[in-house]
Amino acid sequence: ESDTASEISFQFNKHKKTPSIGSHSSDMASVSSVSGSVLSVYSGDFGSVDAQGTVEFALDYDEKNREFQVHVFQCKDLAVVDEKKGRSDPYVKTYLLPDKARMGKRKTSVKKRTVNPIYNEVLRYKIEKMVLLIQKLNLSVWHNDPLGRNSFLGEIEVDLASWDWSNRKLNWYPLKPRSLSAVNGVDHRGVMNLSIKYVPPGSLGKMCPKNPPSGEVHIWVKDVKDLLQLRPSGVDSFVKCYVLPDTSKKSYQKTRVIKRDTNPVFNHTIVYDGFHTEDLKDACVELTVWDHEKLTNHFLGGIRLGLGTGLSYGIAVDWMDSTQEEVAFWQEMMSAANEWIEGLLPLRSL
Question: Taking every annotated instance into account, which residue ranges of this chain make up the domain C2 (predicted)?
Answer without folding.
Answer: 51-173, 188-320
